[in-house]
Amino acid sequence: MKSLKDYTIVIRPDDNNTYVAYVPAIEGCHAWGETSEAARAELDNVFAMILEEYQEMNRSFPQDVELLVANAS
């Protein structure tokens, strides 16, 4: 069974001094919080809900994706 540890997680600053955390490989797997830690903790809850939905529909979880980081010059 997949867990959040199997995926790349992106956490970045968002508008209004908040943070957004998301899993690029899983559509809809995103959360926000007032701190990066809060966003990450909420992402755990979102992942658990999505995992439950996938299990109910008997769907396999997608493979992780590789991210490329580009420097803004």
Give structural attributes.
single chain, 73 residues, alpha+beta, Double Stranded RNA Binding Domain, 3-stranded antiparallel sheet, HicB-like, HicB-like antitoxin of toxin-antitoxin system domain-containing protein, TTHA1013/TTHA0281-like, TA_system_antitoxin
How does the SSE layout of this entry go?
Blueprint: E1 10-13, E2 19-22, E3 30-33, H1 36-56
Antiparallel strand pairs: 1-2, 2-3
Structural description of this entry:
The N and C termini lie far apart (41 Å). 12% of the residues are buried. This protein has one helix and three strands. Strands 1-2-3 form a three-stranded antiparallel β-sheet. A hairpin with a 5-residue loop joins strand 1 and strand 2. It is α+β, with helices and mostly antiparallel strands. 29% of the residues lie in helices and 16% in strands. The protein has a single domain, classed as Double Stranded RNA Binding Domain. Pfam families: HicB_lk_antitox (PF15919). It comes from Crocosphaera subtropica (strain ATCC 51142 / BH68) (Cyanothece sp. (strain ATCC 51142)). This is HicB-like antitoxin of toxin-antitoxin system domain-containing protein.
